[in-house]
Specification:
Distance between the termini: 27 Å
Order of helices and strands: HEHEHHEEHEEHHEHHHE
Helix content: 40-55%
Number of strands: 8
Oligomer: single chain
Strand content: 15-25%
Largest sheet: 8 strands, mixed
Number of domains: 1
CATH class: Alpha Beta
CATH topology: Rossmann fold
CATH superfamily: Vaccinia Virus protein VP39
Shape: globular
Length: about 270
């Protein structure tokens, strides 16, 4: 009998504004996260949890001759991804497949590589997910995982109210079964899942008024927009009241104004399949 498949609860939702945020995030972070990911001509790459295709676009730019198979559990997200990468779909460089990460419809060792970005944080059983991905990658192939860590967010001016809104997102994600601070545990997670040659590198974001592109692209359009998207679950779960939420968001936005600063760390892990 097949094991039950844990549900994936996407705390940010599937709204049009969230799709826009994902695109802004991917574009802003493209060089930081993807500059050292390259796949060779003819190699097969599985992207698990491709969502609306925001990261897929950048995988294609860095590996224009590789063949990608991109999966996601949400049909609307796949429909959006099909539009985002339409030329690659038309020339059959990309195949889009609706599938759960825990029931990937591929034979053992099908792919040369696998890529996962901002997916494990939403899963109640991330190690089981990594094992499922590992099983469809050939021996000697690679796995690349990128995750954030909301506990790494620091900002000026300091504000307990702003910090509480971020904590509301972390707690809401935990309530849904995920871990918004998973970046810091990628190394043990991949080792425990049976991967070899695991290496993790931090990718640090710092934004202040002298770096307006980062202030707008990351502080405002990526991080603050993400926290704002957690308003409904935070209020529904009773993690905060309306007045506290409004004040916290307002004070968090100060980090993107004038003398404000914002810091955050992503973690990128690579490993080999034994």
């Amino acid at each position: 009998m097949a094991q039950p498949q844990p549900s994936l609860s996407y705390v940010h939702g599937y709204s049009e504004s969230e799709a826009t945020r994902l695109g802004d995030q991917a574009d802003t972070l493209a060089e930081l996260l993807h500059h050292d990911t390259h796949y060779r001509q003819g190699e097969s790459v599985l992207e698990v949890g491709c969502g609306v295709g925001a990261q897929t676009i950048h995988l294609l730019r860095h590996s224009p001759a590789a063949h990608l198979v991109c999966t996601d559990i949400a049909r609307p997200s796949l429909a959006a991804a099909k539009v985002s990468v339409a030329p690659a779909v038309a020339r059959r460089q990309i195949q889009l497949v609706q599938a759960s990460i825990f029931a990937l419809p591929f034979a053992s060792g099908t792919f040369d590589h696998a890529f996962v970005c901002f997916v494990l944080e939403h899963l109640a059983e991330p190690e089981r997910a990594v094992r499922a991905i590992r099983n469809v990658v050939r021996k000697g192939g690679s796995l690349t995982v990128i995750e954030g860590d909301h506990g790494s967010a620091f900002f000026h001016p300091a504000s307990e109210h702003a910090r509480r809104t971020i904590d509301c997102l972390v707690r809401a994600q935990a309530h849904a079964g995920g871990d918004a601070n998973i970046g810091r545990r990628l190394y043990p997670l991949l080792v425990q899942a049976g991967l070899d040659q695991v290496g993790v590198s931090p990718r640090f974001v710092y934004a202040d008024d002298s770096r307006p592109g980062w202030v707008d692209g990351f502080t405002r359009k990526t991080f603050i927009a993400m926290v704002e998207g957690a308003r409904a679950p935070a209020l529904q779960l009773g993690l905060i009241d309306e007045a506290g939420w409004t004040r916290g968001i307002a004070e968090l936005k100060r980090s993107a104004e004038g003398d404000g600063t914002f810091c955050y760390t992503f973690f990128k892990a690579t490993a080999k399949v034994r």
